[in-house]
Amino acid sequence: MTDYFALLGQGRSPWLDPEELKQAFHARSLLGHPDVQSEDHDARKAEGAFAELNEAYQVLRDPKRRLHHLLTLEGSAVNAQAAAIPADLEALFPKIAELTQTADALAQRLAATANNLVRTLARPELTQTKVRLEKTLATLTQLHDSALTELKATRETWSADDVRNLYFRFSYLTRWMTQLKEKQLQLNV
Asked: Virtual CA dihedral for 54, 56, 58, 60, nearest 10 degrees?
């Protein structure tokens, strides 16, 4: 497995400064970009190296993917089946499930009808569901920001357990945020 931290000249750490990471990526990209290579063989080789460099950057700039990569490199595999919802997020799980189901049902009902009266009568429920989605997304965003702050604090000293816990926190938060944003899009059609 390629060490993406080494590929981009970064130390193995749960937290990486986004601007430093971006600068390291751009500096290495300029050196090995396929357009710079003149011969076909070199260009093909450079394309593969550039693709790997790009993948390294994409992984390391995303906290969840970076933590997973770090755990894998450190020999502390992530067991998704053993992942319990972090205790402070556990109360959100049924709320998000119910909100997702409500938004799905409403979106299906609205998509199934062309009747303007039915759409007009559903407007209060639609507005209420959109407000609930916005509020829940705001809560998740605050929790995500808190997790980023916690992640930043682990820059110097960290354990595999700390990293694993943060990985699961980011996993749930990003998954839920993505789901709720999809529901917002479905209801805006």
From this structure: -150
The angle at the Cα of 57, spanning 51 to 63, to the nearest 5 degrees, equals: 140
Average pLDDT in the chain: 89
What domains appear along the chain, each with residue ranges and CATH number?
4-61 (1.10.287), 80-187 (1.20.58)
Q: Which residue has the tokens 């972090």?
A: 86
Both tokens of 128, joined, read 């209420």
Query: Residue 174: helix, strand or coil by DSSP?
Result: helix
More confident residue, 112 or 62: 62
Question: Packing angle between helix 160-187 and helix 116-153, nearest 10 degrees?
Answer: 160
- Please give the average per-residue pLDDT across 115-133, as a whole number: 93
Residue scoring higher pLDDT (11 or 81): 11
What integer pLDDT is reported at residue 148 of this predicted model? 95
C-alpha to C-alpha distance for 17 and 34, rounded to whole angstroms: 27
CA atoms within 13 A on the CB side of 36: 10
CA–CA gap between residue 186 and residue 181 (Å, rounded):
9
Task: For residue 66, give the nearest of 24, 5, 17 by alpha carbon.
Answer: 5
| Chain Cα centroid distance, residue 138 | 16
DSSP letter assigned to residue 15: -
Stated as kind and residue range, the H or E segment containing 48 is helix 40-61
pTM, to two decimals: 0.83
